């Protein structure tokens, strides 16, 4: 295995730009120049997408931008010691030590272990001090290689007070392990033993039942769900995002010890799928059933979207090559022709038929995937098979995506209930492979066929008829509502609900569904475009970081990535969110009233060939962006002065 870092990947005491984006791009170019990644823009974009989830700056002058990327060919570290430092979002100021951690999309366990070892070393003051004192790139390479070289650690028997903790972040490369080591170190300072289970990408051993039983309390420092949360049932609990464990580990340990001594402190519930109404507590992460149901549905939607995107884009390409009548003849062309025996219309017609057929097959998994992963969110893996099956049943009886949602819930809860049955030890091996899928499929599928199919099919048919009958003011109102939803949380649950409504009903044979898809995509493109326009026209109203984000927002908006507006909304939500909602609502209304159609579920300007009435679509997009930019510019002038310049040069001055 090659070294994870080389001298040509190290930059010492240089100015790589005034913003974190500049530094990330320069480091990405080093990785590509070293032959460890294939495309600078691709790696840079993936790293920025991770930055959009949460800042990667850490206390002590450290920045750790990181990502998994299909453009990375082997796990790599690129390092810069900056002069001057650059703001990566840490609470104590700019970072002068920056590691770009680049992992392949499918990195193996050994390589990920090296990456996480580095992350863990960054919480050690002696390691960062050595990096700042390094005289040459070769010295840095030696320090890093020593840090990531596994060493055998003696196992000490725990004594005295004990805590257990779980750390996890979305990427599972850096913050997960840095939080773990921070909590362990904080425990040592407090005279407490902290045992941590890291639910990340690297190898990790689950906490044993004895260790959990001996602990006085549990700490959940996670940005994602805790796996097998029920193991900790009854333990006093303190919960937060993963970065608090890095920034305030001593406070979290103190809170956990206090919770252990308080008989009224929050406790971990026996099961996250409990049937009694849970209380809602910010420290425990307990949620109401409404929130839990939303999480379940969004899990199904998130797994469904790749089928929608791939299938929809292939269908749109089929139309591009074969014309809009290709749907009527695609199956016959594909089965009766080949490259050696082209149909009437030649190669374009044949390719169009192939692309359309591939897209239609992928799109056919929409409802089964929705149902299958709703069931998965409820019952874990035992729910997948019955969920997919009942999703196919819903499609067969004409219940559509509504049937998929209902069927997925039925299959998931049936699988969960069956999995909890007390059976003899000799029969447990049959449960996951026979009993659970058979019982849950029979129950949910039987209900769908015998009882629910026709009523749900009638509801689906009624919804389609209502959409087809929309015109005039009713269509405009729907466009406004969809526009408001797309801009409200920019990729969050409300945005996803509007997107799922559009994609789940998308059909080339249903003009109304194509109008809804057009409204949703156009409205979703507006927030980043509006803010990009505002930063270009009125730059003094925005900070240096926001102006840099504005440059990237042009491409993000054009690509239908609404999340490009998140950095602006996070910095100033009361002014930004209402402004972009106004622009998106206008766009949605114009698209619906203008009869614009769209047969592709994603792609932005790159699927303009799939847009009907393209002039109206572009007009609506421009109008929404202008109105949103104007609104946010006016809002930022009300009640405050122009945003301060937070560039390193300005801070130093």
UniProtKB/TrEMBL annotation:
Record region (Disordered): 261-281
Gene3D superfamilies according to UniProt: 3.40.50.2300, Mannitol-specific EII, Chain A
GO biological process, one term: phosphoenolpyruvate-dependent sugar phosphotransferase system
Membrane topology type: Multi-pass membrane protein
Domain (PTS EIIB type-2) ranges: 163-258
Source organism superkingdom: Bacteria
UniProt domain PTS EIIA type-2: residue ranges: 3-147
Molecular function per GO: carbohydrate:proton symporter activity; kinase activity; protein-N(PI)-phosphohistidine-fructose phosphotransferase system transporter activity; protein-phosphocysteine-sugar phosphotransferase activity
Subcellular location: Cell inner membrane
Record keywords, A-Z: Cell membrane, Kinase, Membrane, Phosphoprotein, Phosphotransferase system, Sugar transport, Transferase, Transmembrane, Transmembrane helix, Transport
Main location: membrane
Biased composition (Basic and acidic residues): 268-281
Keyword Cell membrane included in the entry's annotation: yes
InterPro entries: Bacterial_PTS_Sugar_Transport, PTrfase/Anion_transptr, PTS_EIIA_type-2_dom, PTS_EIIB-like_sf, PTS_EIIB_2, PTS_EIIB_2/3, PTS_EIIC_2, PTS_IIB_fruc
GO cellular component terms given for this protein: plasma membrane
Domain PTS EIIC type-2: 293-645
Segments traversing the membrane: 296-321, 350-376, 388-418, 430-453, 465-488, 516-537, 580-600, 606-632
Protein name: Fructose-specific PTS transporter subunit EIIC
Lineage, opening ranks: Bacteria, Bacillati, Actinomycetota, Actinomycetes, Propionibacteriales
């Amino acid at each position: 295995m090659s070294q994870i870092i080389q001298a040509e990947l190290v930059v010492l005491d240089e100015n790589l730009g005034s913003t974190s984006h500049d530094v990330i791009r320069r480091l990405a170019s080093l990785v590509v120049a070293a032959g460890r990644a294939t495309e600078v823009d691709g790696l840079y974009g993936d790293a920025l997408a991770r930055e959009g989830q949460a800042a990667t700056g850490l206390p002590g002058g450290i920045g750790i931008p990181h990502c998994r990327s299909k453009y990375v060919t082997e796990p790599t570290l690129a390092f810069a010691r900056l002069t001057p430092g650059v703001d990566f979002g840490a609470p104590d100021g700019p970072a002068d030590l920056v590691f770009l951690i680049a992992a392949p999309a499918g990195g193996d366990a050994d390589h990920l272990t090296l990456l996480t070892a580095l992350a863990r070393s960054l919480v050690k003051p002696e390691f960062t001090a050595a990096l700042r004192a390094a005289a040459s790139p070769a010295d840095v390479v030696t320090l890093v290689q020593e840090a990531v070289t596994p060493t055998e650690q003696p196992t000490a028997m725990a004594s005295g007070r004990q805590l257990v903790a779980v750390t996890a972040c979305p990427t599972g490369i850096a913050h997960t392990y840095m939080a773990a080591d921070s909590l362990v170190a904080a425990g040592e300072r407090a005279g407490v033993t902290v045992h941590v289970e890291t639910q990340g990408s690297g190898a990790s051993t689950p906490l044993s039942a004895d260790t959990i039983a001996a602990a006085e309390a549990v700490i959940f420092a996670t940005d994602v769900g805790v796996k097998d949360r029920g193991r900790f049932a009854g333990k006093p609990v303190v919960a937060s995002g993963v970065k608090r464990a890095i920034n305030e580990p001593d406070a979290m340990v103190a809170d956990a010890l206090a919770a252990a001594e308080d008989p009224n402190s929050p406790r971990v519930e026996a099961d996250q799928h409990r049937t009694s109404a849970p209380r809602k507590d910010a420290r425990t992460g307990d949620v109401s059933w409404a929130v839990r149901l939303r999480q379940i549905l969004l899990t199904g939607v998130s797994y469904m979207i790749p089928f929608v995107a791939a299938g929809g884009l292939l269908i749109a390409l089929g139309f591009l090559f074969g014309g809009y009548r290709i749907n009527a003849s695609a199956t016959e062309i594909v089965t009766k022709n080949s490259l050696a025996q082209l149909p009437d219309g030649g190669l374009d017609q044949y390719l169009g038929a192939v692309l359309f057929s591939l897209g239609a097959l992928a799109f056919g998994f929409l409802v089964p995937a929705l149902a299958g992963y709703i069931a998965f969110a409820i019952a874990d893996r035992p729910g997948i098979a019955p969920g997919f099956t009942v999703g196919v049943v819903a499609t067969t009886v004409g219940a559509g995506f509504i049937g998929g949602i209902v069927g997925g819930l039925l299959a998931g809860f049936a699988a969960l209930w069956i999995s909890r049955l007390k059976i003899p030890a000799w029969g447990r091996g049959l449960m996951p492979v026979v009993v659970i899928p058979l019982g849950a499929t029979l129950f949910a599928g039987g209900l769908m066929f015998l009882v629910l199919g026709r009523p749900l099919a009638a509801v689906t048919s009624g919804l389609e008829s209502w959409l087809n009958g929309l015109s005039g003011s009713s269509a405009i109102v729907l466009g406004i509502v969809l526009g408001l939803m797309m801009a409200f949380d920019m990729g969050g649950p409300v945005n996803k609900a509007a997107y799922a409504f559009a994609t789940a009903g998308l059909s080339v044979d249903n003009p109304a569904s194509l109008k809804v898809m057009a409204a949703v995509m156009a409205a979703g493109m507006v927030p980043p475009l509006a803010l990009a326009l505002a930063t270009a026209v009125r730059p003094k109203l925005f900070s240096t970081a926001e102006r840099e984000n504005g440059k990237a927002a042009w491409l993000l908006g054009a690509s239908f990535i609404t999340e490009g507006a998140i950095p602006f909304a996070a910095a100033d939500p009361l002014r930004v969110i209402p402004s972009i909602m106004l622009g998106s609502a206008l766009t949605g209304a114009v698209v619906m009233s203008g009869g614009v159609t769209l047969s592709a579920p994603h792609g932005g300007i790159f699927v303009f060939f799939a847009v009907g009435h393209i002039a109206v679509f572009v007009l609506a997009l421009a109008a929404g962006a202008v109105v949103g930019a104007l609104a946010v510019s006016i809002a930022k002038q009300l009640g405050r002065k122009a945003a301060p310049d937070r560039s390193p040069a300005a801070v130093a001055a």
